[in-house]
Each structure stands twice: as structure tokens, then as C-alpha cells.
Design goal:
alpha/beta; FAD/NAD(P)-binding domain; 3 domains; eleven-stranded mixed sheet; five-stranded parallel sheet; 16 helices; 33 strands; globular; NDH-2; oxidoreductase
């Protein structure tokens, strides 16, 4: 059934009537249908041209005379559109206040729609969106905004009661990464999709906005956000400065670009998202300790993109090494892979790359036999310092026997592009090697350097969450044990309470964020929480592991669902054990005992070897989030035994 939308005459700007006729279609209203209809009715539309200046409108068209244009965005009309929908402000009148004033107004959007509105752009609501808007207006649930889609944010969102809360994840990543198996993707043992879970899931009742938090207004209870849907670098990396996000792709795939300001499409639109409760779970970035050249030239290992870059660079170095004009000395440097940091991530990455190189790549590159080398550096006197001495020693002996060169008590001084001894300037050249300088060994040529030396706070924690503009009296639970807020306390300058060295947010035993003023007073916020690597309880701080973050998220979800925050014992971390893969189908497993906070005194202190590897694989298959990925991980590991790992480079 055709439907009509009339725009009344305006004496100020518009001296004519415009009538837009749309027809219902099972496939929705398409751009080519608008084009055909406009050509067949050219008498009604004197001019018709593409609006190239607005690429974000995906098919916007200009209809009407040049002095008073109308822009129509048909891409927003979904297949569910009914005739009644045509009564809802179909005409998008940009730059024409008269038409905008006279056109019928659309139905109110969801609660967060004003936060997403961009001046100068109007969106056409579908029938489904109108229904959602009506439900939203009657929704009595509390809006819980969760910053981050990692172990803390993703777990919490799935555990909150949908009857009580309306969770919304705000994150630059639209997916969750099962990080314990991230090293397996870098070595080709698993596909990247095997360890990824989408945040948008039709089976969950969790909303999602792809954006990065840039600030929090505690008084108004809003989060200032920047849209990151079309940004080249959506996750914060120490490699790239904020004004140079265009080079985020990595040094191994593109030439170094000159310093330049943001491109226009890189500038994410700013908007605000209101909340009833806020949970900060943005995680951490890699700590560089200010080592010269590391931020610009090293690779990091936090996300799927990092694993892709590591795998691609390894294959790239092998291809460069077999080129006929590559010198033997350069070949040796290209195939020397350095990993800085001998914690669980560094150990597992070195072990996985060792398996990948010696079991798969050596078959393809027989002329390079005995040349590849993996070197592991750490300032500590031993590897895996969180494990028992016997397990740590076993890991070091096993990995050295398998060909991994472990150099403890070594201090990295700098990292630059170019061969050892090359004169400056040191221009970036992915076709050549890098030079890693250590205090003990001097300059060493390496084809790749992966930096996994610990955590640092992201800029959102260190800069955005610093001072408090307006004291949130209505959000304060107590000040120094008092439940009342005085006028003097409100006027005093407040800031977020943080740990003195590392810089994470200091939270109380119930994971509530705290404020402090110059007088030394502490204010506890009742509706702002923090968990994971960006938070530190003042008493009994858990380790910075996925296990600890997941426990915090589950505990907080239970407390919020029961509405008893502050009425139960505070959060307490329970150590369930620590595992690490050390290569050649061998692993370590440290089991906690009663003296360590566990309850497994009847078990041995540790398990090692192939038995531990079997437990390691079984545990991580069972811990994978979806049944789809549980089956895919198990099936892929089985295929590797018969057909080898994936060696593709892309």
C-alpha cells in the first residue's frame, strides 16, 4: 500500500510542495528504487544529485532545488517497514530549518538515543525501533554501563539479572577474546575466530555501543564517549600516539608514515551515555618502562590484532631470509626472534613459536635448518616467578633443551630499526632487521621483538579519571565512615583515589570506586565500580590474571543481583591454580594448598610434563565460553596432529 508524506509550505524558505511516495516491499526500500522513482517523476524533483560530502550517510541523496535541498537517507528503512512508518518524518531536512520545523516529528527513541544524536543528522526509526523505544520508556530496570569487553566486562554483562538490570557494554572492541589461548593463534595452532566471542549475541539481553570512553561526569551520571566504529586503531597500544593512529597497522606491513594530524574520518564523533550504575573494566596496556624505541618498534601481545601481526611477521622473516640476495648475516638476524618478559605470556608465546617453527616451518624451508632462534629475555633471575622453584627450574631446563635461549638477569636498553653497527638515522625498513641493545650483550640483530613485560594503565585511567569537576553528593555512600555529606566536603576539590605507583583505581572490598581530597578524606561511591587490571582493592589485591578478573565479575554480579553490596563479606580471591604451556606437548600446573589460600592439600604441589599438558588442554576447552568454540578448539587441535598447523600469511 503506498503511503504519502507531505511537507507543508513555508513562506520563509520553501515556495513549493514536495510529495514523497514510498511503496512497501518485502526487500525493504532500496537506493536503486529511489533512483528509479526519481527519474520517472523528474517533474516533481527539479534537481537530483549525489551528496558526496557526507560519506557517513551511506546513500544519501539531495532532492529539490539548490537553494533549499532535501536529503533522504533510504538505507535506514528496514524490511519490517509498514505503511504506518511512512508517517514518521521520512524526509531528512538538513540545512533547511523551515522544512525541519514543519515536518512531522519522529517517535522518541530509546533512552540512549539523545546521546547518540549527531547535530545535522536525522535518523528514520523503524517499526522495531519504535517498539523498542516504547518498551524503553516503560523500562524500570537500572541501566548498568560497563566499560570494556574483556574478562571483567563480558563476564559481568552475562551474569547480571535481565529482570533487574539493563546492561550496556561500551567498548572499542566488538568481541571478547579468550586470552589464555591467544598464543595458540599466533603459532597457527588455532584460528583467530576460535577464541573470539561476539559481544552482540541474539541469545543475550546485553546492549552494545562500539566506542571508547573519554571521560565520566559523576554528578550527571554520564560517560563521555568517542565512536570508534571506523577507526583504524580502536584499541589503545603503546606503539602509537593518539595523534598518529593511522600507523596502528604495525611496522611489519606498512612503511612509516610522516607525522600528521587526524584525518577527518579518524575523528570519532563524541556523545554521552547515561548510567544508573557504572562498571570500569577497561583493562591495561603493556608497560614499556620508557625504554627507547620500544613504543615505536616493538610488538605487543594483548589482542587478536597483536597475534595476527606476530604470526605475519614470523612468516615475513622466513620469506625474506630465502630471497637470493639476502646475505647470510642478515638471514641470521632476521630469524632471531626476541621475546622480552618471562612471565606466563612470554613463556607460552616462546614455546608456541618454537613448536610452530621447528615442527611446521622447517619442513617448508629446509635450507634454513638450524638457523632460526628464539631468545627470551627477563630482568628477573628466573622465569615464571609465580610458580614454585621446582616447576620454574623444570620449565627453564625443558625449554633450553628444546632450543629456546633463555637469558635471565638481562636489561634491555633500546630497540631500533637497522642492523647492528649501522649508522644513524635509523629509518624503518621492514625488509631488514631490528637491533636490540642489552646492557649485558650489547647490540643484537633480531627479526622481531615482542614486548610482554607487565601492565600499565591506559590513558582513560591515568588522564580522564583524574580530578572530579563536581562532587557527586547523591552518589556518595560514605565519607570516612560517615553516611552524611557536609557542605564543606562538597566544596573541597576531589579526585579519584589511585595506587601510588602502578596507578590503578583503588577500590574498597566491594569493588566500589573511591574519591579523595586534599584533607585526606575518602569518599566511597555507591554506583561506580571497578574491576580487573585497572582496579586494585586496598586489602588483599588479587593477581592480574584472567582468573582473578573473572571471579571479581561473578562476585559483583551476584551482589548486584541480590542488592546486598556492602552487607556481605567483601570480595576474596580464591586461587584455583596456575598453568603454563612450555612447548613440545608439555606444560606446568601449580595446585594451591591450604597455606596458599586453596583447599587442595591432598593433591601434589605441582604437575608437569605431558600429563599437565593434557589437563591444560582439557581445562581451556571447558573454560571456552560458547559450545561452538569448545568444539572448534578441540577439533582444530585434533586436526593439527594429522595435517599440521595453519601456516598461511595474511
Amino acid at each position: 500500500m503506498p503511503c504519502e508524506q507531505h511537507v507543508p509550505e513555508s513562506p520563509d524558505r520553501l515556495r513549493r510542495h514536495v510529495q514523497l511516495v514510498l511503496t512497501d516491499s518485502s526487500e525493504g526500500f532500496r537506493v536503486h528504487e529511489l533512483d528509479r522513482w526519481s527519474r520517472n517523476n523528474s517533474s516533481q524533483f527539479p534537481t537530483y544529485s549525489r551528496e558526496d560530502e557526507y560519506p557517513m550517510d551511506y546513500g544519501s541523496y539531495q532532492v529539490g532545488q539548490s537553494q533549499d535541498p532535501l536529503r533522504i537517507s533510504p538505507f535506514l528503512v528496514l524490511p519490517t517497514m509498514k505503511s504506518s512508518m511512512c508517517q514518521r518524518s521520512i524526509l531528512h531536512c538538513h540545512g533547511n530549518p523551515a522544512i525541519e520545523r514543519d515536518a512531522p516529528s519522529a517517535a522518541p527513541g530509546p533512552a540512549i538515543a539523545p546521546a547518540l544524536h549527531t547535530p545535522g543528522r536525522r535518523c528514520l526509526a523503524t517499526q522495531a525501533q519504535q517498539s523498542a523505544a516504547t518498551q524503553e520508556s516503560d523500562d524500570k530496570r537500572e541501566r548498568v554501563v560497563i566499560l570494556g569487553s574483556g574478562w571483567g566486562g563480558y563476564t559481568l554483562s552475562r551474569r547480571l539479572s535481565p529482570k533487574t538490570y539493563a546492561p550496556l557494554i561500551l567498548s572499542p572492541r566488538s568481541y571478547f577474546v579468550f586470552t589464555p589461548l591467544l598464543t595458540n593463534t599466533a603459532s597457527g595452532s588455532l584460528d583467530f575466530s576460535n577464541i573470539v566471542e561476539p559481544v552482540r549475541d541474539p541469545r543475550s539481553k546485553v546492549d552494545f555501543i562500539q566506542g571508547a570512553a573519554r571521560g565520566v561526569n559523576l554528578k550527571k551520571k554520564t560517560v563521555l564517549c568517542e565512536a570508534t566504529v571506523v577507526k583504524s586503531g580502536v584499541t589503545e597500544s603503546p606503539r602509537t600516539l593518539e595523534e598518529h593512529r593511522g600507523t596502528e597497522e604495525g611496522p611489519e606491513t606498512r612503511n612509516q608514515q610522516p607525522m600528521q594530524p587526524y584525518l577527518q574520518w579518524e575523528q570519532g564523533e563524541m556523545f554521552e551515555v547515561p548510567y544508573d550504575k557504572l562498571v570500569i573494566a577497561v583493562g591495561a596496556v603493556s608497560r614499556t618502562f620508557g625504554t627507547p624505541g620500544v613504543r615505536e618498534n616493538a610488538m605487543f601481545f594483548k589482542d587478536i590484532g597483536d597475534a595476527k601481526r606476530v604470526k605475519r611477521r614470523v612468516r615475513e622473516c622466513f620469506e625474506l631470509a630465502v630471497l637470493p640476495f639476502t646475505t647470510p648475516e642478515m638471514r641470521k638476524w632476521l630469524l632471531n626472534f626476541a621475546i622480552v618478559g618471562a612471565g606466563p605470556t612470554g613463556i607460552e608465546l616462546a614455546a608456541s613459536l618454537r613448536d610452530f617453527i621447528y615442527s611446521d616451518l622447517m619442513v617448508l624451508y629446509p635450507s634454513l635448518n638450524e638457523i632460526p632462534k628464539i631468545t627470551l629475555y627477563d630482568v628477573a633471575p628466573k622465569v615464571l616467578s609465580m610458580f614454585d622453584e621446582s616447576l620454574s627450574r623444570y620449565a627453564m631446563e625443558t625449554m633450553k633443551r628444546e632450543g629456546v635461549d633463555i637469558k635471565t638477569s638481562h636489561h634491555v636498553k633500546s630497540l631500533r630499526w637497522g642492523a647492528p653497527g649501522a649508522p644513524p638515522p635509523y629509518h624503518m625498513d621492514p625488509k631488514r632487521c631490528l637491533t636490540l641493545t642489552t646492557e649485558e650483550d650489547g647490540e643484537l640483530g633480531v627479526g622481531m621483538c615482542v614486548w610482554v613485560t607487565g601492565n600499565a594503565m591506559p590513558k582513560f585511567i591515568t588522564e580522564s579519571l583524574e580530578s572530579v569537576d563536581e562532587f557527586p553528593a547523591n552518589s556518595v555512600h560514605s565519607i570516612e565512615g560517615s553516611s552524611t555529606v557536609t557542605t564543606d566536603a562538597e566544596k573541597a576539590p576531589w579526585k579519584f583515589k589511585k595506587a601510588p605507583k602502578e596507578g590503578p583505581l583503588l577500590v574498597d572490598g566491594y569493588l566500589r570506586v573511591q574519591l579523595q581530597n586534599e584533607k585526606g578524606q575518602t569518599a566511597v561511591l555507591r554506583d561506580v565500580f571497578a574491576l580487573g587490571d585497572n582496579a586494585m582493592p586496598e586489602k588483599g589485591a588479587p593477581p592480574a590474571t584472567a582468573q582473578a578478573t573473572s571471579q571479581e565479575a561473578k562476585w559483583l554480579a551476584n551482589r548486584l543481583n541480590k542488592n546486598d553490596v556492602g552487607q556481605t563479606p567483601p570480595f576474596s580471591f580464591r586461587d584455583l591454580g596456575t598453568m603454563a604451556y612450555i612447548g613440545d606437548e608439555r606444560a606446568l600446573m601449580q595446585i594451591p594448598h591450604s597455606g596458599d589460600g586453596g583447599a587442595s592439600s591432598f593433591l601434589p604441589e605441582g604437575i608437569k610434563g605431558r600429563t599437565a599438558s593434557l589437563i591444560w588442554k582439557t581445562a581451556y576447552i571447558s573454560m571456552s565460553i560458547s559450545w561452538r568454540n569448545k568444539l572448534r578448539v578441540a577439533f582444530r587441535w585434533m586436526l593439527n596432529r594429522f595435517f599440521g598447523r595453519d601456516i598461511s600469511r595474511f
